[in-house]
Amino acid sequence: xxxxxxxxxxVADGTVTAxxxxxxxxxxxxxxxxTTAWGVVRIESVTPVDPSAITDADAAAAGEPSARAVxxxxxxxxxxxxxxxxxxxxGEDPRHALSAETDLTRxxxxxxxxxxxxxxxxxxxxxxxxxxxxxxxxxxxxDLAALLGREKNKLKLDIRKLKNLGLTHxxxxxxxxxxxxxxxxxxxxx
Length: 190
Description:
Layout: H1 5-13, E1 18-22, E2 33-35, E3 40-49, H2 56-61, H3 67-73, E4 82-91, H4 94-100, H5 106-119, H6 126-135, H7 141-148, H8 152-164, E5 168-170, E6 175-177, H9 179-188
Antiparallel strand pairs: 1-4, 2-3, 3-4, 5-6
């Protein structure tokens, strides 16, 4: 499930407590978490609702100006069920603290290397992408993909894997190497 920055900010400050989705079946479960650019959002509940019963107060809790706006925002087949997804704030994105690490131990360096080897299992790409991010900070994903001869959406997914290891940061446009990523590359001599 994708949340907009406005919704995620609203969850963080307590003004947004739910979103509505039209799905054939629920795609999230209570207890799931979503790691977003703003932090971690918890899925508190998933409840089927009658769309005609959504009120303006419900819409306000979803960060929308009216029930009509909520209904207009629903995607998917008109006959599919509508769900109210209750949201809660889970805290800061743990990748921020991870990516700030620069004094890496031998064990941490070995762990990063082993994880990258696993990511490279089918086709080596990790170090090439890290070097490209270092050489072209802030380059749009489409341009970076073209530079590397890769498909844009696959590249974005791969860069997210590097971000999960604390090696890259996402910018408004493009990416940059994190302090942890720079320390790893420096230790490797690349």
